[in-house]
Specification:
By secondary structure, this protein is α/β, with parallel strands linked by helices. It has five helices and eight strands. The chain has one domain: YbaK/aminoacyl-tRNA synthetase-associated domain (YbaK protein), CATH 3.90.960. 26% of the residues lie in helices and 28% in strands. Strands 1, 2, 3, 4, 5, 6, 7 and 8 form an eight-stranded mixed β-sheet that branches.
């Protein structure tokens, strides 16, 4: 995909605004295919494909968790680390409303409203990662340092 043909999603605009070097990686989207599909389509390890998960705590306060594609989030550990009673995934309609993106295409960049962002600490050791570009079937490859610089996520240890 040529650089000028990249869809102008809020995520792409955010990356360009911060002058981040990124590579758009379009792929054939499959409904409910998740990171396994994008990793297979792009022939990369699922571990470097990062999921953007929209969650909420027991007070219905929304938050984002960035997690390796081949891992799950321990909701109990996350709640403990956040000092709340419970954390659960948001319903897709609420996630779409909060982020401005469609489920399956949610990016942590260019969110409709600012949300606290938490990142699995082991993501920091990757050189590069692949994360959603704000549209189903479009992910972007970028340096982990750039993601951290733009999002300033709080690290957590919640992978299982």
């Amino acid at each position: 995909m040529a650089r000028d043909k990249v869809p102008a999603t809020p995520a792409i605009r955010e990356l360009k605004k911060h002058k981040v070097k990124f590579t758009p990686r379009p792929y054939k989207y499959e409904d409910k295919g998740g990171t396994r599909t994008s990793a297979r389509e792009l022939q990369v390890e699922e571990h470097i494909v990062i999921k953007t998960l929209v969650m909420e705590d027991d007070q219905q306060r929304p938050l984002i968790v960035l997690m390796h594609g081949d891992c799950e989030v321990s909701l109990k550990h996350l709640a403990r680390q956040l000092g709340v009673k419970k954390v659960a995934p948001c319903k897709p309609e609420r996630a779409d409303q909060l982020t401005g993106y469609q489920t399956g295409g949610i990016s942590p960049f260019g969110l409709r409203q600012p949300l606290p962002i938490y990142m699995e600490e082991s993501i920091k050791i990757l050189d590069k990662l692949i994360i959603n570009g704000g549209k189903r079937g479009l992910i972007v490859e970028l340096a982990v340092t750039d993601l951290i610089k733009i999002l300033t996520p709080t690290t957590v240890s919640v992978a299982i």
